[in-house]
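Look over both lines:
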Amino acid sequence: MLNSFLLIAEAVVYFSVMVTLFKFRSRVGLGVFVCALGVMHFLETYLASVFYVALPFGMVSPGSAVLFSGKLVMLLLLYIKEDAAKVRQPIYGLLLGNALMIGLVLLLRMHTIAPMSDGRLPDIGFIDEMGWLMVWGTTLLVVDAILIILLYEKLGRYLRQAQFARILISVACVLTLDQAGFFTALHFVAGAPIAVFFGGWFAKMAAALAFSTMLVAYLRWFEMRDIQVPRGLTDIFDTLTYRERYEALVEHVGRDGLTGLLHRGRFDSDGEAAVQASLRTARPLSLLIIDVDHFKSINDRFGHAEGDKVLRAVAAVLGEAASPQDQVFRIGGEEFAILSMRPHPVARLFGESIRHAIKASAAISRFDLTVSAGISSVSETTSCLADLFALADQRLYKAKSTGRDRVIGEPGGHEADTAIAWTRSDRI
C-alpha cells in the first residue's frame, strides 16, 4: 500500500514541477523545461535497471513507470502547445548526447588510471552497462516520441473533440510498445525476470491514465492560448506539425464567428459536393433549412446582445441533435441549414425532433421561441445544390406563412419515389 502511494506521489510531484516550468516558459525560457527534462534521463535509466518495488501485480520501477512515462507525456505536451521544432530538440539532444557519452567512455578506457588514496578505482563496467542502456532507452524514446505524435495526429480525425481519450490511447499504446522494447534490453543486460515486464506494463498503464488526466486538466485550466503555426522545419516533425495546425486553421476559417457552426461559404462548397456524391452513389441526402420565428422581436425587445445569445443557444441545440455525419451551417442572420445523410421520411422526423428540442431548451424557452423548417431531399428533380435549396426554401416559406412553429417537407413525385427507394436500399 505504501509503495503504491509513493508511486502516485512521485508522479504528482514530477508532473507538477515540470508543468510549472512549462507554464512559465515565456518568462524563464523553454530551455529550463528542456534541461530539467533531460537531466532526469540518467536517473530514470538507472532506476529502471536496478530499483524495483513489489506491488500486488508485479515488480515495478519508479524510473520506468513514473519518470519515463512522465517524460513521454511532457514531450507530447511540448508538441501540442509549441511546435515540432521545439519537441525535436530534447529528443535528438538526448540521442546525440548519449552517443557522445559512449564515445567518450571508449576514450576514457585508454587512460592509465591512478587510484585514490583509499585504493578506490572507477567502475568502468557500471559505466559501460549504464551507457548502453541509456543509448538503447534513448533510441526507444526517439521511436516512442515519433509514434506518440503520429498516433495523436491520426486519432485527431476521430477524437478531436475527445481530448482525454485521444491522449490516453496514444500514451497507453506507445508505453506498451516501449515496455516490450526496454524489458528486452533489461533481460539480456541486467537479467530482469518476466515479473518485471508484467509489473511494469500494469504500472505504465496506470501511469498513462494518471498522466493523461493531469495533462488534460492542465491544458484546460492553464493553457488557453492558441497554438502557433511553425515555420522552417526540415524533418518528419515538419509534416506532422504543419498539417495539424493548417487543418485547424482551415477549420477555424470555415466557421461562423458567432456560433462556431460552418458558414455560408462552406455550405455552398460542401453542399454542392455532397449533392453530386449523392447523385453518383445513390445514397440519400436531405437538406433542412431552419429559421428562428420572430427573431427580430427579440433584438427589438431585449437588444442584440441577447439576440446573439439566442443564436448561440440555437446553434448548440442543432449541434447536439446532429449526428457525426451531419453538417450544420449558419447561412444567414437567424437561418441555419443541416445537410444530413438521412432519407426524406427520417429527415422529417429529425426536423420535428429539432423543433421540439429548441422549444424545450432552457436557454431559449424563456423567450417563448420557436423555429420553422423546410426539408428537401436529393432526387431526379434536384440535380444540384441550388435546386435542393430552392425546394427547401419554398417549404420553409410555406411553414412560415401557415402559422410558423412547424416542419414542412412534403415529398412529391420523383422525390418521394427516390426517398422510398433509398430507404429500402439502406435496409438491404
Q: What stands out?
A: The first strand starts at residue 53 and ends at 55. Confidence is low (pLDDT under 50) at residues 226-234, 412-428. Residues 124-159 form the longest helix (36 residues). The chain has two domains: 2-109+122-251, 254-427.
